[in-house]
Specification:
By secondary structure, the chain is an alpha+beta fold. Helix 4 crosses helix 6 and helix 5 crosses helix 6.
């Protein structure tokens, strides 16, 4: 009855089915009783109101029955949840990285992928890591979901039963493009997975540029994309050396984004606001970034190429 795409489906669906059926029974029963009461004790049928005293039997019934139902719900929930924290020793470990607004999966040795690719019938442990804000990794078909919180070691595990493609969502509101933070789980045969992993290029060995590390640590990439996409602020792609119109002293002027402009924008962000964007949204980093750190950020921005948009 509860067979599904992973070993977690049975426990989760059993608990959900019991709670759902119990809720339906109570909704139908209580609604039916209310309708019957309105009809049975209508003023046209019962002319004289009667006073009723309390009933110990009734008090016991509506205390004991809900208690039993809640304890059954707890038991079913517990036997569904407990296995989720007991990871088998032979589980394959993959680091799942959440950042605004994408997922990335680290298979070790510098091998990174944008999709979660795993072998069928192999227990998999996802070690959850966030680079910025709170996220939550959810694979509906496998009935697994855990929060991805900065600085908190969390994990989830499952065993996929069927080869196929399954959706991955973020279920913790994490900013402007939260709804687009999706990817896929691709379950392959062991042979196909081994081939895929052997052909996966090594892209994660080179450490991040010092300037990019600073942009991440200060939260800049939450509002400024690195790929040309328009967010709360202008994209960093192609910014350095670009000529653009800005509002300065209530006048629209044309400037070139050079070292001085970048430093000024970090220290006094409302002094020169790019046309089409709002002022008052960015704080000053004068007390958070040294001149040396600003220079590192500037050097990184020089590497981002030209924005073709």
């Amino acid at each position: 009855m509860f067979s599904g795409a992973s070993n977690m489906v049975e426990g989760v669906d059993r608990a959900f089915a019991f709670i759902f059926i119990t809720a339906i029974v109570f909704i139908v029963g209580i609604t039916g009783f209310m309708i019957w009461t309105v009809i049975r004790y209508n003023e046209k049928r019962v002319k004289k109101a009667k006073q009723f005293t309390g009933s110990n039997t009734l008090e016991i019934i509506w205390t004991v029955i809900p208690l039993i139902l809640v304890m059954v719900m707890f038991y079913l929930g517990w036997i569904g949840f407990a296995p989720m924290r007991n990871v088998p020793d032979n589980a394959m470990k993959v680091k799942a990285i959440g950042r605004m607004w994408e997922w990335q999966f680290d298979y070790g040795d510098g091998k990174l992928a944008k999709e979660l690719v795993i072998p069928v019938n192999q227990p998999v442990k996802l070690e959850l890591f966030s680079e910025d804000v709170n996220h939550s990794l959810f694979i509906p078909a496998f009935r697994v979901k855990e929060d991805v919180v900065p600085g908190y070691d969390n994990y989830l595990w499952f065993t996929p039963f069927y080869i196929g493609e399954y959706e991955i969502l973020c279920t913790e509101y994490c900013g402007l493009m939260h709804s687009g933070m999706t990817t896929k789980t691709l379950v392959k045969s062991q042979e196909d997975f081994d081939k895929w992993l052997s052909e996966l290029p090594v892209t994660g060995i080179v450490p991040d540029h010092a300037g990019l590390v600073l942009l991440k640590n200060t939260g800049c990439i939450a509002c400024h994309s690195l790929d040309g996409a328009r967010l709360v602020g202008p994209s960093f792609k192609g910014l350095y050396g670009k000529t653009q119109n800005v509002m300065a002293n209530k006048e629209l002027v044309s400037i070139t984004a050079d070292d001085a402009y970048i430093q000024s924008s970090l220290i006094n962000p409302d002094g020169q606001v790019v046309e089409g964007f709002n002022k008052g949204l960015m704080k000053s980093y004068e007390k958070e970034l040294s001149n040396e750190e600003i220079q590192k950020i500037t050097e990184y921005l020089k590497t981002l190429g030209i924005d073709q948009q």
